[in-house]
Design a protein that fits this description.
It is a single chain. The protein has 11 helices and 7 strands. Strand 4, helix 4 and strand 5 form a beta-alpha-beta unit. It is α/β, with parallel strands linked by helices. It starts with a strand and ends with a helix. It is 54% helix and 12% strand. The protein binds nicotinamide-adenine-dinucleotide. The site of nicotinamide-adenine-dinucleotide has 29 residues, from helix 1, helix 4 and helix 6.
């Protein structure tokens, strides 16, 4: 029988691409419950779903910030049976923290962190009882490494990573897999939305130097990075499908190899100096970047050798 897959945040971007890709699976392995907060925005998904609509893909309302909407959506599924939960809904936020209210920050945590917690709390007991299931979370490389002016967004993704890292061991005892997908930049409405917010923001609540750093240095570089290194929602959907299809799904999966060294810096040097030096130079002293990157690679190689020795000493290999 096809597996029931519930995906959150399917009105656009990665969620939409993934819902359609799974619904169109040639081997018909999935029945997709594509959920969204506002059913008024179902048009794009319906168009992309085409003939799969109401066959292998059904659209339902679900707001990850509203427990009642989560419960009523799960209750509407026969036997509340969800084989694969994909936590995709998320919001971004960029800018100097002096320009963001605590309420706005809480909003990001509500969606990106508590949204995931609410969903998992609702499906976990049934998965445990059946002793099977797969919980997937669309995290980010920013769940592994902080990036300037993404303070709160990064914190929300770190929270998700820590939560899943704690849960995964218990879940495995019940034969439930947990997987974090960690994309770098992806060209979706996400990017457009954060830039729109950034353009309309009031920077008078921070000092001129910080405001200039954000609007001139950060925004310009960020746009260049998205256009040169950005992946498509379809790329992320393909990576996610591979993780879901694996016999032993990985706990972590990065979709963009360019970002892997960046996330390794803190592990190579536990004092954090390698990471802070690299990022400082990357942002403020671009010309010395090559030099520091080569040094970083050497340190990472050295550390990897040490780690392998350590693992051997502990008798794990
Ligand atoms: P997107 O804005 O196109 O999609 C996010 C979706 O989440 C939207 O459809 C939005 O309506 C929905 N959503 C927001 N709040 C919700 C709520 N309370 N309940 C239900 N749905 C809600 O952007 P995307 O890039 O496709 O983002 C999907 C996920 O990928 C997010 O978790 C994001 O953090 C993550 N991600 C994005 C990027 C990127 O660069 N775009 C990079 C790494 C990770």
């Amino acid at each position: 029988a096809p597996k029931t897959v519930l995906i959150t945040g399917c009105s656009s971007g990665i969620g939409l691409a993934l819902a359609v890709k799974m619904a169109r699976d040639k081997q018909k392995r999935f029945k997709v419950i594509a959920t969204m907060r506002n059913l008024g925005k179902r048009g794009c998904l319906e168009a992309a779903a085409g003939v799969t609509l109401n066959k292998t893909l059904e659209i339902r309302q679900l707001d990850v910030c509203d427990e009642r909407s989560i419960i009523s959506c799960i209750n509407s599924i026969p036997n509340r049976h969800v084989d694969i939960l994909i936590n995709n809904a998320g919001v971004g936020m960029i800018g100097p923290i002096e320009c963001q209210t605590i309420e706005e920050m809480k909003g990001v945590m509500e969606t990106n962190f508590f949204g995931v917690v609410r969903m998992i709390k609702e499906v976990l007991p049934d998965m445990k009882r059946r002793r099977s299931g797969h919980i997937v979370v669309i995290s980010s490389v920013m769940g592994l490494q902080g990036i300037m002016f993404n303070d709160i967004y990064t914190a929300s993704k770190f929270a998700v990573e820590g939560f899943c890292e704690s849960l995964v061991i218990q879940a495995l005892k019940f034969n439930i897999f947990v997987s974090l997908i960690e994309p770098g930049p992806v060209v979706t409405e996400f990017e457009t939305k954060v830039y729109e917010d950034a353009e309309n923001a009031d920077y008078s609540t921070t000092d001129p130097e910080t405001a200039d750093m954000f609007t001139n240095l950060y925004l310009k570089n960020s746009k260049a990075i998205f256009s040169s290194l950005g992946q498509t929602p379809n790329d992320i959907a393909e990576h996610t499908l591979r993780v879901i299809s694996a016999t032993k799904p990985p706990f972590r999966h990065q979709t963009n190899a360019v970002y892997t060294p960046m996330t390794a810096l803190k592990h190579a040097d536990p004092t954090g100096a390698l990471m802070t030096d690299t990022f400082y130079k990357m942002v403020f002293k671009y010309d010395t970047l090559m030099h520091i990157s080569l040094k970083a690679i050497k340190v990472i190689r050295w550390q990897a050798r040490k780690m392998r020795q350590g693992v051997k000493m502990l008798g794990f290999s």
